Amino acid sequence: MEASPHGAPADVAEVKESLAGVGYLADEPVALVAYLAQRLGKPVLVEGPAGVGKTELAKAISRATGRDLIRLQCYEGLDEAKALYEWNYRKQLLRIQSESTGETEANPAWDHIFAEEFLLTRPLLAAISSEDQVVLLIDEIDKTDQEFEAMLLEVLSEFQISIPELGRIEARTQPVVVLTSNNSRELTEALKRRCLYLWLDYPGVDREVEIVRLHAPELDETLARRLVEVVHMVRSLDLKKPPSIAESIDWARALLLLGADDIDSSVFERTMSIIVKHRTDIDIVAERVGVKLGGAQVEEAAG
Predict the structure, then answer these.
(1) How, if at all, do strands 119-121 and 85-87 pair?
(2) Measured distance CA(230)–CA(263) in Å, rounded
(3) What pLDDT score was predicted for residue 300?
(4) Neighbour-count burial of 91, counting CB atoms closer than 10 A to its CB (0-12 exposed, 13-18 middle, 19+ buried)
(5) Any bridge partners for residue 146, and if so which?
(6) Which residues does 301 contact at the CB level (< 8 Å), separation at least 6?
(7) pTM for the full model?
(8) Beta bridge partners of 73
(9) Among candidates 181, 195, 197, 268, which has minimal Cα distance to 229?
């Protein structure tokens, strides 16, 4: 299959290989959506529990394509001024004061203060107006409200932003747009309609072993599998915050530094805080998993 213009990938296999080359092991659905996003020019909405690699996917696409990453971190109360643009009122005031003496009725100073030089560019406008191709990450969109979603529709549909004082600013180069959601609230149908959709969940044991060993290659495969199996045991509990994939990797690196060759109850107790981050969760995990690891030791000794 011939490569498309503007450096877009030729096929899904190329995307999968390029993501693996920057440390992101993508399965077929992930590689397919990343491919279609670049070839069709459509945003991708990635949903799933916290810590499964949604944000990292956008970063990996950025690294694999050589595009800069522009990130809009969403939060409750985020408004257009922080996401799109706002006017530099101090600079405008200085201009008005400097021109006030020469002001005429036909050419008042304030005619000149609504120009791009007075515009404070925020992430959405920065992505739209960039002369270079970029990846735009709109992270945790579910933390905003429906009014903010409505504002995004013009950006996601037309890749343009309307500024009353300046007019319409259209994308110079079309960004790859990735929106992430932890699924804390239902997003609007209007937003979903404009996006390709990807659900990311925690990987299976075999896939997570691959991921851990990719980032901690010195870790013995047997120990890596033991680590991942323990992490999966922890995730199966009713916790405030199950351990993320990144925390599995952190734990693997910590075990290497400590010179651990197994995960027994003692090692687990010393290093548990790397993957468990809430006080109540620590109690639950110590009682359910720590005891089980201790019991396994006894059985091995008896055998």
Answers:
(1) antiparallel
(2) 9
(3) 45
(4) middle
(5) none
(6) none
(7) 0.84
(8) 139
(9) 268
208-247 exposure pattern, b = at least 16 Cβ within 10 A, e = fewer: bbebbbebbeebeeebbbbbbebbbebbeeebeebbbbbb
DSSP collapsed to 3 states, the chain? CCCCHHHCCCCHHHHHHHHHHCCCCCCHHHHHHHHHHHHHCCCEEEECCCCCCHHHHHHHHHHHHCCEEEEEECCCCCCHHHHCEEECHHHHHHHHHHHHHHCCCCCCHHHHCCCHHHEEECHHHHHHHCCCCEEEEEECHHHCCHHHHHHHHHHHHHCEEEECCCEEEECCCCCEEEEEECCCCCCCHHHHHCCEEEECCCCCHHHHHHHHHHHCCCCCHHHHHHHHHHHHHHHCCCCCCCCCHHHHHHHHHHHHHHCCCCCCHHHHHHHHHHCCCCHHHHHHHHHHHHHHHHHHHHHHHHC
Cα 88 to Cα 99: distance, rounded to the nearest angstrom = 17
Q: Which residues pair with 47 in a beta bridge?
A: 181, 199
Which tens digit of pLDDT belongs to each residue from 78-115?
988 889 878 767 776 777 777 665 554 445 555 577 76
pLDDT digits (tens, 9 = 90+) for 230-241: 999 999 999 999
CB 52 within 8 A of CB 202: yes
Within 13 Å of residue 179, how many CA atoms lie on the same side as its CB?
24
Look at the chain and count its residues. 303
Q: Which two tokens stand for residue 42?
A: 């459509």
The tokens describing 198, both together, are: 């990807």
Residue of 17, 12, 70 lying closest to 38 (CA atoms): 12
Tokens, residue 164: 């009353």
Strand 68-73 versus strand 134-139 pairing type: parallel
Cβ atoms of 32 and 57 closer than 8 Å? no
